[in-house]
Amino acid sequence: MTRLSGGLIDRSRSLSFTFDGRRFTGYSGDTLASALLANDVRLMGRSFKYHRPRGLIAAGSEEPNALVELRSGARQEPNTRATVAELYDGLTARSQNRIGSLNFDLLAMNDLLSPFFAAGFYYKTFMWPRAFWEKLYEPAIRRAAGLGSLSMQADPDAYDKGFLHCDLLVIGGGAAGLTAALTAARSGARVILADEDFRLGGRLLAETHLLDDAPATEWVAGVEEELASLPNLRIMRRTTVFGAFDHGIYGAVERVADHLPEPGGKPRQTLWRITAKRAVLAAGAIERHIPFANNDRPGIMLAGAMRAFANRWAVCPADRVAIFTNNDDGHRTALDLAAKGVEVTGVIDSRVDATAMGDYPIFAGGLVSNAKGRLGLTRIEVRQNGRSRWIECSALGISGGWNPNLHLASHHRGRPVWDEALQSFVPAGDGPPGLIVAGAADGQGSTAAALRSGAEAAGRALAELDLKAAMPELPQAEDAVSKPQALWHVPGKGRAWVDFQNDVTVKDIKLAHQENMRPVEHLKRWTTLGMATDQGKTANVTALAIMSELTGKSIPETGTTIFRPPYTGVSLSVLGGGNTAEHFRPRRLTPTHHWAEAQGAVFVEVGPWMRAQYFPRPGEAHWRETVDREVLATRKGVGICDVTTLGKVDVQGADAGEFLNRLYCNGMKTLKVGMVRYGLMLREDGIAWDDGTCARLAEDHYVVTTTTAQAGPVYRQMEFARQCLWPEMDVQLISTTDAWAQIAVAGPNARRLLERIVDEGFDISNEAFPFMACTSLTICGGLRARLFRISFSGELAYEVAVPARFGHALMQRLVETGEDLGATPYGTEALGVMRIEKGHAAGNELNGQTSPQMLGMGRMVSTKKDSIGAVMSRREGLAADTRRLVGLQPVDAARPVLAGMHLFTDGAAQSTATDQGWISSACYSPHVGCHIGLGFLANGSERMGEVITGANPLDGQQVALRVVSAHFVDPDGGRLRD
Amino acid sequence: MTDLTPITALGGSAPAAHQFGPLRISENPDVALVSLALRRGATQPAPMGLELPGPGQWVAGNGVAAFWTGPGQWMIEAEGRATEDFAAALAVEASGCSITEQTDAWTVFEIVSGNGGAPIRALMEKLVNLDAGAFGPGSATRTGLHHMSAYVIRRADDRLAIIGMRSMAVALWHALDETAERLKGELQ
């Protein structure tokens, strides 16, 4: 087959491509589908289940059969519809779902076994033996029944996302979409016109009707030119609006570089979230086919698609073509093909009163009942007046009427209604608010009706926005409406395909009916009808009409399945928005991150933060060697640790003290200026929530700290309390977590080290600056800083805060200046060890299951004032819990202690009923010289010295533990106050 | 004057800057930021002669600028005063207000277009769910940007500032950098 005359292809630009390794050429303006047809390739794929040879059915995104693997290497993309793959020079494509060649697919034996592969067979067949499912059945089924394959390599291309806002979004750039966009844009409204094709015009590009005595493409070009000149309109070609979401938000994928061999500097695709005040859906319509026996032979396609290939791309699948129709539209294809010199061997029209509209044989009242030609159609069986005969033809166009493309209008559970006159479902107007349907999508399929309804829809939308729009002058256009005869399939022997992509036949629907899978939603799940990449665009209505025949219910009674986004397949890459690997989510870095990196620190993720976990030194073979060294160096000399990640909230105002009194279970109003207090916040149910310190910098100014993990939630809770619970209070809040680099300096030499950097005139001696003091001061020659004498490690310790940009330099200064004092940077691991040794509760203890009493802080909950959770913390059920935080030490010092172990009385049975608590934190303590743990033990405070069992019954581990004080280091706190 | 040497939010000794086609994105470490919040019953001050703007607004005055951050709350910007105690200077001008230093809580990226407002709008469309067309000069808001929270200020038709959390500066810079780079590819 050579090219026909005409067409919207650029014959001066020839493009080379390969399909299954064979080299072909096409033209600029071609799709892969049209270029393959132009090269006489009719066989383009194998079907999903039976591996039947398949060719094109459609010319657009509804195509169920011609799915290919596009591109190669890491860019290989499965299940690409050849009809929407824009041809470029160097394109490579392969057919998929076959073993062997496309012409001789070994899996075609499935077709011979088809009686065993009827709908629902998986559910019935592969049930026994059970063990075979995962190892044998599933892999075999997946291999045999499937679509394209993945490259198993990472996608090398970039993907983008973006946000657009407009008054009117016009979905579809055909006759209705263009008049809608023109009407709205002329009024000055902000308009976006999105079309999935690479060329505006929609169905106008596929038809030969004139507009105002000129080819429709001339009118389209004129409109396009005007639209391009209007700054308030944005044309988005190659953009599929795939879903209508809440509040006027539409999802769209722009294929920015899919039509290029490689994206170059561009993103491959962009995911747009479009917020539109109003939208016009002008998505057109999709033609129906009419199932008959063997109707899946390559060469059998929709008549409208055949016409589109001939008129737009100047190709026809064969020299001799027949048409099977139940309405006038099939005749249009016959006329257009005949005009291009294609032999039309007959139009088989199911209507008994049908007449030919041109010079071709007509079979009025005829039906096509069978087809031959395994790898390509050779002849069709025509039944007419009780007689059957075979007619030679290499292609058959089928027109069974048109289904409006109402998917997006049905996305908010809009339920389409049946239009008896049109014999199709049309939108009922109950879809997404603000969405108006126009043109063929609304059942207004004649060119004149589409042009008019597009403009009118835009006018209505703008009127709702109080914008005035004038109707544009519309060109004269054809206005023929043809009611299709109700013909949903041709009864007969043999398999008649309804859903080509999922290999669902009329027989399968009968079987579904027989097995009582009659509601459409059951029909869909049980037969897989309407699933996969095409979502049944050419199948669903036909299938439910056949089901309605079987049940005796009407089509509207039978109804449609629910429509959901996406309208066409959306790649996970573009949904991901382009951020992968370490950029998948943003990371927070501490002010000393770069310094720690240079020291060779090992980092650990702590929520969004990256924190230095430990600082290995040459010769240290194991992380614990490093951590033990850091702990011992801190307890002996001085350790330095970045603790910026702890949340900081600045609290000011006349009522700041009272406000904090109500948030913390202990009192903060009585805190003296220049002092810090440990504070515990409770949840409303009385469970311990978060702890930290509260420093009073002035009468009306506090700075509170939170744990790293709860910094956000605590700040949110504080804002909630300020704005909603007690709006009458004079309190102002703001987070200062990132503003200050805060560095812990801990160990017996801490004060000596700090004295070397604190500016003259500030006295930080034990007397002048005792335990739990805080002050503003300057360091290192005038740098404003804050100093807090607080300790997490149990040592003499301080935290010094400076503006974050100086954190790096301060850390460096402390380590260098303190070298002779044994200054050692330590990470979160040593921090954890030291707080366990000191018996300080942390996230493991504040796990949302523990009360202040359990933590040994019951008396902290003030009874002199009310605070969030205070009353509930005293409720019977909670107060009766006898479990208390204790220290645990193995009787045999060589045995490890594991966090998560449960605690049992020595020798008792180990069950839920005898469970006495659990170990919340455990580590190796270099200070004690063995593993130690913190845990919650029933009557724990009365059991000091008792030997109990720590057990992990799941793994059969168990260890004898002695109950000891939780304070392994300096139990009377002398070091803190030295 | 302290002898400690500061680093920028991106970890450099000098501010970073990149050119992407018509867009130049640079780190601005020199602007001081201070939060000003009205105390109960306080009258709205006009610090350093600046009339504090309403919701969604940013105004620039003589060496200082301000944007609205919440009811009775503003962020005051002072160009070139990042290392001094600008909070203390502002407190004198705004009695009855809660003043909190915020300079190093944030990182400021200034984006300048060499080709009018169009590239700024195109970049905004890829970064934030704001109506770029309606976000004219003098607009300011806080919004989500690549899973981060950021202030976005339209300083002029051809100038945009994005202010993100300092600890996320590297992630924010990466987001701006790769978005602008792809946009450059698309604008070509």
Description:
The complex is a heterodimer of chains A (978) and B (188). Chain A has 978 residues and is of the alpha+beta class. Chain A has 6 domains: 1-156, Roll (Ubiquitin-like (UB roll)), CATH 3.10.20; 159-283 and 424-464, 3-Layer(bba) Sandwich (FAD/NAD(P)-binding domain); 286-403 and 482-558, FAD/NAD(P)-binding domain (3-Layer(bba) Sandwich), CATH 3.50.50; 586-645 and 738-840, Probable tRNA modification gtpase trme, domain 1 (Gyrase A, domain 2, 2-Layer Sandwich), CATH 3.30.1360.120; 647-736 and 857-877, Alpha-Beta Plaits, CATH 3.30.70; 882-977, Elongation Factor Tu (Ef-tu), domain 3, CATH 2.40.30. In chain A, 22% of the residues lie in helices and 28% in strands. In chain A, a hairpin with a 6-residue loop joins β21 and β22 (379-384). The radius of gyration of chain A is 38 Å and the shape is elongated. By secondary structure, chain B is an alpha+beta fold. Chain B has helices at residues 86-93, 118-127, 169-187, and strands at 17-20, 23-27, 32-38, 58-60, 64-70, 73-78, 97-101, 106-113, 140-145, 148-156, 159-165. Chain B is globular, with a radius of gyration of 17 Å. Classes of the chains: A alpha+beta (978), B alpha+beta (188). The interface between A and B is large, with 63 and 58 residues.
Given the structure, what is the number of helices of chain B? Answer: 3
The assigned structural class of chain A equals: alpha+beta
Gyration radius of chain A, in Å: 38 Å
- Name the CATH homologous superfamily of the largest domain in chain A: FAD/NAD(P)-binding domain
* Beta strand % of chain B: 35-45%
Secondary structure tally, helices of chain A? 24
Order of helices and strands of chain B: EEEEEEHEEHEEEH
Largest interface: A-B, 63 and 58 residues
**Which CATH-level-2 architecture of the largest domain in chain A?**
3-Layer(bba) Sandwich
What would the CATH topology of the largest domain in chain A be? FAD/NAD(P)-binding domain
Largest sheet, strands/sense/barrel of chain A? 7 strands, mixed
Domain SoxA A3 (chain A): 493-578
Domain GCVT N-terminal (chain A): 593-865
Protein name (chain A): Sarcosine oxidase subunit alpha family protein
InterPro entries (chain A): 2Fe-2S-bd_N, FAD/NAD-bd_sf, GcvT/YgfZ/DmdA, GcvT/YgfZ_C, GcvT_C, GCVT_N, Sarcosine_oxidase_asu, SoxA_A3
